Amino acid sequence: MDFFKQNVLLIGLAIGSGLALLWPMLNRSSAGATVLSVTEAVVLMNRKSALVLDVREADEFAQGHLQGARNIPLSQLDARSKELEKFRDKPVLIVCQRGSRASKAAKLLKAQNFSALNVLKGGMQAWQEANMPTGK
Length: 136
Description:
Elements lengths: L1 H5 L1 H19 L2 E2 L2 E4 L1 H11 L2 E4 L3 H6 L6 E2 L2 H7 L11 E4 L4 H12 L5 E4 L2 H7 L7
Parallel strand pairs: 2-6, 3-4, 3-5, 5-6
Antiparallel strand pairs: 1-2
């Protein structure tokens, strides 16, 4: 017991360091969706033929998007979710400009029992910074 009293600061530091190391792993799931890097998203698109759902507004989508992406703005997603019914049990990659709208979309779709949701970490900004191809 004396050991713990004398080394409370070191023990706290060890626990804090462990949590800091585990945080990225614990944070990979956002709103019931897996957060993917650009590389992981490409693998998902190529190997599992994922639906790419772009939740940005139409004018943002027109400026450039992932090839083959379907555009349903976040503001219309609840009303238009019936269009995605056949993808309920298939992989869906949700994309927005920076990632925040995609997380909101993932929450909304998770509530409608979509099971294989993925969010592109950093959104289109990360995609473009990685010099990945876009369609117009």
